[in-house]
Amino acid sequence: MKSFYQYLMTERNPKSTEAVAQFANNAFYDQSFPKQSNDYDEISEYLEENASYLPSMTIFDDAWMDFQNSKH
């Protein structure tokens, strides 16, 4: 099963100004990102405490919903 990080990497696009693409681009360079996790609370807490590159948690929530939908 794909982790949230693996899903997020499919959204990477250095030329994009889309919020999710920017999130993915920045997460790619975040050495401490919980890459194996599929736990919403764990990732959310990590981002709130460490991801200064994420301007809004709404971006994570939108990406999480897309991730959940991609599994079906």
Question: Can you characterise this structure?
Answer:
The chain has 72 residues and is an all-alpha fold. The protein has helices spanning 4-9, 19-28, 40-50, 57-70. The relative contact order is 0.22.
Distance between the termini: 12 Å
Succession of helices and strands: HHHH
Low-confidence stretches: none
Mean pLDDT: 96
Tally the helices: 4
Profile the largest sheet.
none
Cα-atom radius of gyration: 11 Å
Please state roughly what percent of the residues sit in beta strands, choosing from under 5%, 5-15%, 15-25%, 25-35%, 35-45% or over 45%: under 5%
Q: Helical amount among residues, as a percent range?
A: 55-70%
- How many beta-strand elements? 0
What's the overall geometry? Answer: globular
The secondary-structure class comes to mainly alpha
Give keywords.
mainly alpha; 57% helix; globular
Sequence-ordered SSE layout with sheet pairings:
Elements: H1 4-9, H2 19-28, H3 40-50, H4 57-70
Short description:
With 72 residues, the chain is mainly alpha-helical. The longest helix is centred in the last third of the chain and has 14 residues.
